[in-house]
Amino acid sequence: MLDLRVTPFTERGSRLLVLAEPDGSLRVARAEYETRLSETTVLTGLRLFSGDRELPVRRALPDRVSFGDGVDLLFADPGTLVLTGSGARAVWDGGAGEIDGTLVLVGQTGPHDAGELLARAAERRREWFARMPAVPAELRERAEQAWWTLGVNLLSVAFAGGREGVVPSKLGYVGIWNWDSYFHAVALRHADPELARDQLRILLDHQRPDGLIPDVVHDRGVLAETTDLPRSDHDRLAQHVGGPAAPGEPIGGVVPVTKPPLTAWAAWKIHEAAPDLGFLDEVYRPIARSQRWWLTVSDPDGDGLAEYLHPYSSGLDDSPIWDHGPRAEPPDLNSYLALQADRLGDIAEALGRTAEAEEWRRQAARHVELLVARRWNGSRFVTLTKFASGAAAEVATRTPLELMPLLTGRLPREIAERLVADLLSPAFWGERPVPTVAFDDPAFDPDAMWRGPVWLNVNYLLIEGLRRSGFAAEAEELTGRTLDMVNAGGGLYEYWNPLTGARARGATTGFGWSAALFLDLAHRRAGHRP
Predict the structure, then answer these.
(1) Residue 377 burial by CB count (10 A; 0-12/13-18/19+): exposed, middle or buried?
(2) For residue 331, is the peptide bond before it cis, meaning its omega torsion is within 30 degrees of 0?
């Protein structure tokens, strides 16, 4: 069942969204990149009547919206919405029509056979759900919602080279975002490995000659550089909230933007589920070029540790780590780069390039040693704000990014144990871990994006880190608490309030990577590996 007040009825490949208005009527709008639904409205005020009796929505299902009396709303094709039934009348703002077999609301006028449309819609539903990864029975209802979310978020985007990509959400995120695609591929690999591979190809097809993989591929082009800061970051910098930016520190200018370097990690996960040496050979050199970009272009001070040149590149646009400047070096980035070097080593070894595999692993080891030597202060890994002048300042705000070095699997045991103790401390642990700012930090806000809410990608990567660092029991405990939170929370949200487990204020619904990572964790909980 769908709640049309927060989750639109839509279809794989369709831009059309059907939503319930507060007065009970339905609205149809189109999903477009960086465009509000209020600007793409196709039809408003839709109501159905049988005689003088209004037919309210009785059930909104993945394949149809049912009004009772044999009247249904469904897709004839991705661009065509049709009402089927007889003896009922539809009215909407500026129009009306009798339902006699079929009535086209939006799209191709027909002819359409009602019975055939209903049968085809039901078959599309059966076929998609038959491919859903196996999950424990107690998680199945939420998993079905997650699997449906991934299916309907599949779109053909103009610059995606004819490939289908999973958009993060048709409510506000209509494009192919970089690391979102990697997380989407993690779930798709269990049912459609080639579709999972395509999520990486869409981004790699637009890799720049210098190695940068772009931030977003969308209908109007590719986002690989920007002059903007996120609105909230720009406002905080301009108003000097929490202290002024460094004198002369720019908040504009053209800056390259990407997303965290998890490409090799995702490629290897797909390979584990569905081995394909041809795909590994296809992506190996492009990912190696991306790794070089991070360690050269994105290390402007040349200290050997990469930094985020722009908040967008971190994927954590509104985190308080950006409150004092638009460049920062939190510990997650160099942890990802060490992991990526190890995964490039795995890929090289699978391709028979033994010497290259050994060199990648040496690079991974050296990078972790450098991270420990320069950013471990004896109690935690520190985040630095970097300035164009060459100055740097330690960020006091505590976030789970300082726990991400667990993901390398290469930390000295005593440091790894200290990080796990921090994770399990009241700062980060609770009934619904892990907050994106520590519970006891002054900046903690349970509803503000990246300033306290739980995000599934952070939890998922920490679970991976615990496993790689030898803390299997702790990984299982975090897995269980994460699955329980999502299962009880009512939907696949962008992020959750860690105090209540409810949808955090401002979080969108039907979010792709939440759906994908919930499914993967649930699949693993059912005993499936990898």
Answers:
(1) exposed
(2) no
Angle between helices 263-273 and 178-188 (to 10 degrees): 10
Tokens for 367?
């990078």
Residue reference for tokens 């998609």: 128
Phi first, then psi: give them for residue 450, nearest 5 degrees.
65, 10
135 sits in the region (left: phi over 0; alpha: psi -120 to 50; else beta) called beta
What is the Cβ-side half-sphere exposure of residue 305, based on CA atoms within 13 angstroms? 21
- Which of 121, 127, 142, 147 has its CA nearest to residue 66? 121
Q: Strand pairing partners for 29?
A: 17, 41
Q: Which of 145, 148, 77 is nearest to 108 (CA)?
A: 77
- How does DSSP assign 52-118, residue by residue? TEE----EE-SS-EEEETTEEEEEEETTEEEEEEEEEEEEETTEEEEEEEEEEEES------HHHHH
DSSP result, 208-248:
-TTSPPPSEEETTEEE-EES---HHHHHHHHHTTTSPPPTT
C-alpha distances in Å from residue 114, one per residue of 50, 92, 110, 322, 332: 18, 21, 11, 55, 54
261, pLDDT greater than 80: yes
Q: Is the pLDDT of residue 477 over 60?
A: yes
With contact defined as beta carbons under 8 Å apart, do 419 and 403 qualify? yes
Q: Is 160 within 8 Å of 152 (Cβ atoms)?
A: no
The widest CA-to-CA distance across the chain, in whole angstroms, is 78
User: What pLDDT score was predicted for residue 231?
Assistant: 54
Residues 6+ apart with CB under 8 A from 203: 176, 178, 181, 213, 214, 217, 263
What is the distance between the alpha carbons of residues 248 and 523, in angstroms, rounded to a whole number?
51
Q: What are the CA-CA distances from residue 283 to residues 187, 274, 296, 417 (Å)?
A: 19, 15, 20, 35
Query: Each residue of 89-133: pLDDT tens digit?
Result: 999 999 999 999 999 999 998 889 999 999 999 999 999 999 999
Residue 234 has pLDDT above 60, yes or no: no
Record the pTM. 0.95
Structure tokens, 92: 């909407």
Q: Rounded CA gap, 498 and 500, in Å?
A: 6
- Compute the distance between CA of residue 313 and CA of residue 298 in angstroms, rounded to an integer: 10
Q: How far is CA 480 from the centre of its chain?
A: 20
